[in-house]
Design brief:
- The chain has a domain of 328 residues: Rossmann fold (3-Layer(aba) Sandwich).
- The radius of gyration is 25 Å and the shape is globular.
- Helices cover 20% and strands 34% of the residues.
- The longest helix has 19 residues.
- β28 and β29 form a beta hairpin.
- By secondary structure, the protein is an alpha+beta fold.
Length: 690
């Protein structure tokens, strides 16, 4: 009956937003008084319902306890003789950047020296600072470029900091708020890609020129060394001062997937590295370049497969006369997940049907030879190399039911031992994980993970949360979430992670199968997983909720506008939704390589078929969607969520809306904000699906 109702609804006339001027453009004025009044009203109405739900306070309290927990793993982030760390807790809600002698690593109680207290700095400056990272000046490692964001935006200021005095350098380098980057050329010069004023930013809102800035001179006098066209995405320059005879690389991004890598010569001319436009290339170890292919490559009479990892001598590559060695060649369901280099080895993390495997590669006898590390299986592994002058590395292991364990490994012997394991936040004894797959509309088999209690009834009554992303070659792998465990799984909820096309789970081909005119494949995959859960009677439309953020927020918008009969609850976070104007809002133009250009009629033809804002129907029977965004999100414009909510309310549809006034694209800046966001979301889900 419900499916018949859905078919009838699609036969009704559609009120098209294209046919009239958008009446909600005013909501694109992010911090205009009228816009913020609207936001505050929506927030208040949502809080009045969700904060009064029976389980809200318990979820908030437990989530905050987890975020503030002292049971954490300190990452082995070593610079010189010190261990560096950033930490937020109940006493430092904005966080503290700190360090300790390297010899302290592994101790239960590390004697930290606080370098910057973000709470004190925020109070002093009257700005809610968010720490975004720090770049050291090698080899002394006393001066750093510290990135600070007001409220969590991608745009940040950069200030020179001296760790020996624990203070910002008087008359040191200071870069005003902007998107972009800065890196050390030497102690008295920076490579800077920032907003230099008129015509210095691309149509995507990122820098389009690199300059060299000399200490003690005005930023406006910095010398330009490279500039890209306005319709390119961005560029940056960097120099690895840890390497002898370090080269300066300039990376130019036409869009997310087309790029150029240049060497900056001594005379400030540039040499283009002769690799494919969509390949990633970098200098990994002394004299060696690594090339990661996104498409097949025919060169020098040889063929190299999409997804392969190749190596060659960097000087030969620069000259154009080079021979390639195959390090890794992908298999049907095996793809590259991560690559790290030690002094004499290369560490590769591979995905084998979305399960991590760890290998160490050695160049021997004129070719690469690999050995598998006998790491824990059936989970996710991420490796890191704190010091590439040594042959030791670390790796994390986790899965849906086990919190992270950090291991220290020897790249020469392949031996490893645990450094620390974290205690679980919830009881996992009654839970089980399954990996399943279902045929999508075109027959492609789409895998998904199912986490459930062992004794669930197969009668369609189980509250189920389906999560996916499906874009930008981002892989979703098994991972532990104490918040999801305590707020959902422990209470009887079923959790599903769908590995739909558009991601990188099976390499570049899996991603490219969802690009531009192929985008509907992504949405068909998602619908197919939902239908499979219903077909197996794991759940039913009355008990099925879905969640996604950013590109996944677009997925949510498409899911409930295309197939509203499948879902009872929808959590649509920091989403893209107005695909007619997305390329005109903040960083949107940079994503046209993913979605297409809506200003080109042929490309708008396929985008228009799924764009959620343009496909809303007045008389459709939509679920009561929960939208979230952030006023300080300068990546995906908050107007996407704002306008969608306003239009749905105009059409008489019930919705919930929460816009955090800070937090950036991540949605929250402090642990308390994260806990509140979790409590609101899970309270909504239980209210809708219980």
């Amino acid at each position: 009956m419900q499916y018949l109702k859905f078919i009838i609804l699609f036969m009704l006339p559609i009120i098209s937003i294209n046919a009239q001027e958008d009446p909600y453009l005013w909501l694109e004025e992010v911090e205009a008084e009228k816009s913020l009044e609207w936001v505050k009203k929506q927030n208040a109405e949502t809080f009045a319902v969700l904060e009064k739900q029976k389980g809200y306070k318990a979820i908030f309290d437990r989530s905050l306890e987890i975020y503030n927990s002292d049971d954490i793993i300190i990452a082995p982030y070593f610079i010189g003789e010190y261990l560096y760390n950033f930490r937020q807790d109940k006493d430092h809600i904005r966080g503290m950047w700190r360090r300790a002698p390297k010899t302290e690593y592994g101790k239960e109680d590390i004697d930290w020296d606080i370098l910057i207290d973000l709470d004190d700095l925020s109070e002093k400056d009257g700005i809610k600072w968010v720490y975004k990272g720090a770049t050291p000046l090698y080899p002394k490692n006393e001066k750093f470029l510290v990135y600070l964001s007001p409220g969590g935006t991608d745009a940040s200021i950069i200030k020179e900091f001296d760790v020996s005095t624990k203070s910002f350098v008087e008359d040191g380098f200071v870069l005003p708020e902007s998107k972009g980057s800065a890196s050390w050329k030497d102690e008295d010069h920076l490579y800077v890609s920032r907003d230099f004023g008129e015509n210095s930013m691309s149509s995507s809102g990122y820098p389009r020129e690199v300059r060299i800035w000399e200490r003690g001179t005005p930023l406006s006098d910095a010398k330009q060394i490279y500039q890209i066209p306005e319709d390119y995405m961005s560029l940056s320059a960097s120099k690895d001062l840890k390497k002898k005879n370090a080269r300066t690389y300039i990376y130019v991004y036409k869009n997310f997937y087309e790029k150029e890598a240049y060497i900056l010569n001594d005379d400030e001319s540039v040499t283009l590295l002769p690799v494919q436009k969509d390949a990633d290339v970098f200098e990994a170890t002394e004299g060696q370049a690594v090339i990661m292919l996104k498409s097949d490559w025919e060169i020098n009479g040889k063929s190299y497969r999409q997804g392969s990892v190749l190596t060659t001598n960097i000087d030969a590559l620069i000259s154009g006369k080079f021979e390639l060695q195959e390090m890794f060649v992908p298999q049907e369901k095996m793809s590259l997940s991560g690559l790290e280099t030690t002094k004499n080895r290369v560490v590769l993390t591979l995905l084998n049907n979305i399960i991590s495997e760890l290998y160490v590669y050695e160049y021997k006898g004129g070719k690469w030879q690999k050995q598998k590390v006998k790491a824990p299986e059936m989970g996710t592994i991420s490796a890191m190399v704190p010091d590439d002058d040594l042959d030791e590395f670390y790796f994390y292991y986790t899965n849906f039911l086990e919190r992270s364990t950090l291991y220290k490994a020897d790249a020469l012997t392949l031996e490893f031992s645990p450094v620390k394991s974290l205690e679980n936040h919830f009881d996992t004894d009654k839970l089980v994980v399954e990996q399943k797959e279902v045929a999508s509309k075109d027959g492609t088999m789409v895998p998904y993970f199912l986490v459930r209690k062992k004794d669930i009834p197969y009668d369609g009554s189980n509250p189920t949360l389906l999560y996916a992303y499906g874009g930008f070659e981002i892989s979703l792998e098994p991972s532990y979430s104490g918040i999801n465990g305590t707020s959902w799984l422990e209470k009887g909820g079923v959790y599903v992670l769908a590995n739909i096309r558009g991601g990188g789970e099976f390499g570049p081909k899996w991603h490219q199968a969802g690009l531009k005119e192929k985008r509907q494949n992504v949405y068909n995959d998602f619908h197919s997983v939902a239908e499979d859960l219903i077909r197996q009677k794991i759940t039913s439309p009355e008990h099925l909720g879905i969640r996604g953020g950013s590109n996944g927020g677009l997925l949510m918008g498409v899911a409930f506008t295309q197939r509203p009969e499948l879902y009872k609850a929808v959590v649509c976070q920091v989403p893209l939704l107005d695909m007619k104007r997305y390329n005109k809002l903040l960083a949107g133009a940079s994503w046209m390589g993913e979605y297409g250009n809506p200003d080109i009629p042929e490309e708008w033809e396929y985008i228009s078929k799924y764009s959620p804002y343009q496909n809303l129907k007045k008389k459709a029977d939509y679920p009561d969607v929960y939208f979230t965004t952030s006023t300080k999100d300068d990546r995906v414009h908050p107007a996407h969520a704002r306008k969608m909510v306003a239009r749905m309310q105009e059409f008489g549809h019930k919705v919930y809306y929460y816009e955090n006034m800070e937090g950036g694209h991540g949605g929250s800046s402090t642990n308390e904000q994260h806990a509140k966001a979790a409590a609101l979301m899970y309270s909504y889900l239980w209210m809708m699906l219980k």
